[in-house]
Write a structure and sequence with these properties.
Layout lengths: L9 H11 L6 E5 L17 H4 L2 H11 L19 H10 L4 E5 L11 E2 L16 H4 L1
Parallel strand pairs: 1-2, 2-3
Helix pairs in contact: 3-4
GO molecular function: nicotinate-nucleotide-dimethylbenzimidazole phosphoribosyltransferase activity
Length: 137
Amino acid sequence: MSDIKIHCNEEKGQKFIKDIEQKQFLFSFVISYTETCEIPGITVAGADADFIKFTPAADAEFLHYGSCKSIDMIPMTPDGKPTPALLTKAALESASIPQVIINAGSKISPKLPYFQTDITPGKNIAIEPGLEQSNVM
């Protein structure tokens, strides 16, 4: 890890690097959906309003397979920028970090193995509470 630069507290930084150097990591990708994202202009996750609901599942599929199954392309912003999942996948692969997908209320379920919670998609917080009280506590 000689390519890591430590700023401020050199001693603490070196200790942190030594502590994590031989650890095993697991990336947990938690996907969900909220109707709040349907408010025009509040998000750029998805090429258009119809694609927003596919973004969490498609990102998970891209991380798992290297391609999407729920839609025919990787998620893009309205102006054509690709999903940050490209960088995430590259980082995970370069560091050999395994991953798990957790569905915590995605509107579209991913087409891959995942852990399922009993959480439903969130509501539009401009209209009503985003989650049921039972899902928060």
